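Researcher: For the annotation table, I need structure tokens for Transcriptional regulator, AsnC family. Please keep the output clean. Sequence:
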Amino acid sequence: MRETYVLINCDLGKEQQIVNFLQKLQGIREVQATHGVYDIIAKIETRTGRELNDTIRTKILSLKQVNSVITLQAE
């Protein structure tokens, strides 16, 4: 399993809405709203890089309230 942390920057006031959405996605193991430069941190577990790519690009970045993400992949 690949373990990846995703730091998400979103529109002001949309943090909880995005957290609620992410909690329902397959592969999302943990998600928390945070304070600071990034608004949300999510822990994702996937089997393949393609699965990870799909989760980030088509499910997270497709949300219009999401402005940017940084991914940190654990080895």
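Researcher: And a one-line annotation?
Model: The chain has one domain: 2-74.
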